[in-house]
Specification:
It is a single chain. With 504 residues, the protein is an all-alpha fold. It has one domain. The protein contains 24 helices and two strands. A two-stranded antiparallel ribbon has the order 1-2. The protein is globular and about 65 Å long. The chain starts with a helix and ends in a 15-residue tail after the last strand.
Length: 504
Amino acid sequence: MPSAETTRASVHEPDTVRPTREDEVAAVGSELIGGPIGRRALLGTSWWTPVRVVALVAIGMFALGMVQKLPCYDSGWFFGASSQYTHACYSDIPHLYQGRGFADGLVPYFDKLPGDMDYLEYPVLTGVFMEVASWLTPGGGELQSREQIYWMVNAGMLMVCAAVIAVCAARIHRRRPWDGLLVALAPAFALTATINWDLLAVALLAVAMLMWSRGNALAFGLLVGLATAAKFYPFLVLGPLFVLCWRAGKWREFSTAALAAAGAWLVVNLPVMVLAPEGWAKFYSFSRERGVDFGSVFLFVSRWFDVQITPDTANTWAMIMMLFVCLGIVAMTLTAPRRPRFAQLAFLIVAAFILTNKVYSPQYVLWLVPLAALARPRWRDFLIWQACEVAYFLGIWMYLAYTTSGDAHKGLPTDGYQLAIAVHLLGTLYLCAVVVRDIFMPERDVVRRAGDDDPAGGVLDGAPDVFVLGAAAHPPRHAAPVVEGPYVNWGGSPSGTHQSATNE
């Protein structure tokens, strides 16, 4: 009679996809921690389950990112502008503690600020996050000490967000929990996590996608609405979802999600919108009037061709480019030989928004990290993109050091910064190109090669198509095998049924 352990092996071993068996880079990298994962860990007989490992690694990497900010914590934020750039440890958080009135007890959106910035220029839910952190910061004492504590309080709250994001990435694809390590170990994630408050919106969107993957359209919509109340970009994922539900005929689920998102956004914004309309509108007017700024394609073009690009011109061209991208995503979704995965399109639409924006702050990479891990869970491509983002992270701080160091000119000159922008743009475009290739060649998609259809798709997972165009109306009956070195994988069937994951 087979033992309980043997029974568990027969049940669980085919279900969990091991990156060290299908990804050459993951296999080589695993040697640093003792080699590929063993059978006992795979079977869940150890306390070290994939989700727990991912969460702990994410917390550890976040802590390393905090350590990287130590030179600024000691003095760089307070004594001399250039030192926080030469040490690449800049953060908005301590500067805005006083600059946005939190040190003086001003209420965001209701109380006017001294100086040019008359109201807080952040969305409402982020403003609430900032205000809660100020409540937890003890009053009295020197301002420098209070700014340090304020940063530390925010870092603790953001660490929770980082752990939530990593856990969601590990749980969305049920058979691929180890892909959460892509998020947990992402170097750009650790380096930029405490620059600003973006992790709040990223965490809310990550939980939303987890809810959608579990078939809960209502919870997904509510969380997307909350995420959009914290940052502008999360609502963009509703666009690709609309087209996917169009192709699959899932109108009820999409309507539930969209209405819930609108309702949640209104619940958060309406009180401030009514009681403090000028303060509430500041975020939107600031976004519209803001000029061409760091990291954007517009800054690259303006300096490369020595032309002046006004905010209105940048806004117009950004809208035109996004419109073309959206039309392209619609066409791609309806004509692809197999319905694209939700995570693939979510990554592409957010990446397009970043690439066409008037500004690219270093922490914007946080928006893409969990989506990239779900869209293309391949270590080689992910690390190539991350290397480009780390290069940009260093490039912008070295450029600011150059511009603030006076005649000493310590740092990266303008031409070097232009190169850093180009590296960031090309790295993001590379990952987008790989994802688009996977959509048109689903046999190259590592998720579908393992036999899955759309693990993050919820009701879309394995659903038949009801509306397609062109070649998608006559898909091939079976996908062909893909051979990559010693790894042989088979594409999933059009219906999304599971097949053999790897030739093990």
